[in-house]
Amino acid sequence: MTQVQPLINDTYAYGFHKPENYVFKSKRGLDRAVVENISWHKNEPEWMRQFRLKSLSIFERKGMPSWGADLSGIHFDDIFYYIKPTVGKVSSWSDLPPEIKDTYDKIGIPEAEKKFLAGVSAQYESEVVYKSIHSMLSKKGVIFLDMDSGLREYPDLVKQYFGTIIPPADNKFAALNSSVWSGGSFVYVPAGVHVELPLQAYFRINAANMGQFERTLIIAEEGSYVHYVEGCTAPIYTTDSLHSAVVEIIVKKGARVRYTTIQNWSTNVYNLVTKRTRVEEEGVMEWVDGNLGSKVTMKYPSVYLVGRKAHGEVLSIASAGPGQHQDAGGKAIHVAPETTSQIISKSISRGGGRTSYRGLVLVHPNAKNVKSKVVCDALLLDEASRSDTYPDMKIHNQEVQIEHEATVSKIGDEQLFYLQSRGISKEQAQSMIVNGFIEPIVKELPLEYAVEMNRLIELQMEGSVG
Amino acid sequence: MGSPTYECPISSDKCQIKIDGKNIIKLSPQERAKMGLFLAFQTPIALPGVNVVNLLRSAYQAVHGKPKTNEGKNIQNPLLARRLQSGGMDLVEFTKKLKEYAKFLRIDDAFLHRGIGDGFSGGEKKKMEMLQALVLAPKFAIFDEIDTGLDVDALATVAAGIGLLKKQGTGVIVITHYQRILKYVKPDVVHILVGGKIVDTGTARLAKEIEEKGYKQYDPSTTTH
User: Are B142 and B39 in contact (CB under 8 A)?
Assistant: First the structure.
């Protein structure tokens, strides 16, 4: 008897997914009842219920963005807006259901944890189910919780800041997130406290057609420091998924926050994320943003420099393969004098993929002696691929120093030949050149992420050469 | 070496380049390299971000490493998996050797961690080609005008590299327009190449004669070019 072989093998390296096992799953589509249901399930305070409902009506009123990537493949009526995987939460690894544990084993969380993580908060579906917080954090008064718990345990603190940096009316997807958000992280760092080790969270989507709408709020009090890292790998599906997060960060006087993202959603996910920071006097905000996966990404981490001498940085890497469009970049809004910003973007397009740099530097009339530098470099691997740059500069003050550099390069036959003549295969030569191209940003990543990033590029290159 | 920009001037089925009796004309550049052929480029290009250590480690692995194994394929830790699949090259030993050769060629260690050719001077680029030849220890190395653009000290250093290669058993072909490198390198055989054809063969003496009389005697037309 002949054995039947599977016709199609998964091509997405991390494209495994587990059988679904949920306690509660909302119906498809979005209406008032769904939103009220979510709020009821989470046993939220009345103000949050109202906030969600108000956001829903804004979402319904607002049109889709008229610029950026093609979003016509999103069908809001086909999406599940809330899924609750297991009852309650667990505090240790061994208490996790075996299925979820297995999923995390595959992305290597235990290894990562061994590497002296300060705290791991991993999001499975819409709810954080696994969390271990190093005692060091609580001793220093640092709060690191999933957003739902944050709201429950620190309602006043959350109410004071929630939605103040990114109001629901900011854009359609911020409104959507505001009405159906679930999970994400709540981080509070007291004045003068330095969190030495990065706080890490892992995110995964595991239900066909289920959107993830996590919501993160980070408050860094005066003179504090924290580095927050999120990494995403997602299983592959047959129908499109939507990931629409909101991240709000408040950097108080003299504080410094770094937020690192490695996004590797499977290539059917619409990744539409709003990230923004308010930076006060002499504060520093650094966004390190890597977009490797997803079908479409629209993400422009922003810094609002509202205090004198505040500094903001955006380092962005985007890689687009067949069928992908990475529309990424950054925004620097200079409101106060002597503020400085830097946006560095590196993009790689291959196999017909498309990358766009989209950025904004805005200097208010009162913001004197502002310095800003924008560098965007694009690397094209073949003729079929595409890269565009949309830099927007709105400078309403004469006393400024603004720099803008942009380059587009192609991997040349000469470069490939040189490496090949040393015995290196074409695929490896390409990944060496690409890794060299993004190295200035990769070296800013925590070690395990830098290793993973290089490995992901290699995997992509292996698939890109015919 | 199999550059995509070069074509064999005669019909391709007659075209032959043999290493150890095997015709390599249809082989790709990396296959030729694996057979032990090395080309030092006349004008090496720059590869920003591809640092010298990584390039040489990958190249050494490709040319001399054991074939990659599937061992560790299912291991999630990428560092561990890569080590298992690397064919067991001794990294410490390799790095030690690389640094010795760099010292021999008076290349500062800092260059080893920079993108190859990135911001290098002409002389540094040529020395870097020599370093690669020494580390990769090929059967045959071709140096295409390694001596142009070098000052006297660098020329002596590079020539010492050729001597060391020869001592280690590499067959060396030096392509040059000038006599001056022959002060440091004593060739066993000298070929005179005009218009793509070998027109004369001799010993080091022949090169000296050319230096005095020029190529006129080989020119089929009466005019010089």
Answer: yes
Across the range A380-402, mean pLDDT stands at 93
- Domain assignment present for residue B223? The answer is no
Per-residue pLDDT of A416-466, as tens digits, reads 999 999 999 988 898 899 988 988 888 888 776 777 777 777 777 776 543
Structure confidence by residue, pLDDT tens digits, B50-101: 889 889 988 988 888 765 555 555 555 555 555 555 555 677 788 888 999 9
Domain that holds residue B129: 36-186
**CATH code where residue B153 lies:** 3.40.50.300
> How many independent structural domains does chain B possess?
1
Q: In this structure, are strands A354-363 and A386-395 parallel, antiparallel, or unpaired?
A: parallel
Which residues in A lie closer than 8 A to residue B41 (C-beta atoms)?
A: 418
Closest CB from A108, A425, A436 relative to B30 = A425
CA angle (B46, B51, B56) in 5-degree steps: 100
Alpha-carbon span A383 to B42, nearest angstrom: 29
**B217–chain A nearest CA distance, Å:** 36
CB neighbourhood size of A226 (10 A): 27
Chain A interface with B: residues with Cβ < 8 Å: 105-108, 111, 412-415, 417-426, 428, 432-433, 435-440, 451-452, 455
Considering the domain boundaries, does residue B166 fall inside one? yes
DSSP state of A45: -
**Residue B216 within a domain:** no
Residue B201 lies in a domain: no
To which H or E segment does residue A56 belong? helix A46-61
DSSP string, chain B: ---TT---SS-TTT---EETTEE-TTS-HHHHHHTTEEEE-SSPPPEEEEEHHHHHHHHHHHHHSPPPP-TTTT-S-HHHHHHHHTT---HHHHHHHHHHHHHHTT--HHHHTSEETTT--HHHHHHHHHHHHHHH--SEEEEESTTTT--HHHHHHHHHHHHHHHHTT-EEEEE-S-SGGGGT---S-EEEEETTEEEEEE-HHHHHHHHHH-SGGG-SSSS--
| 8 A C-beta contact, residue B161 and residue B174 | no
Q: How far is A422 from chain B (nearest CA, A)?
A: 6
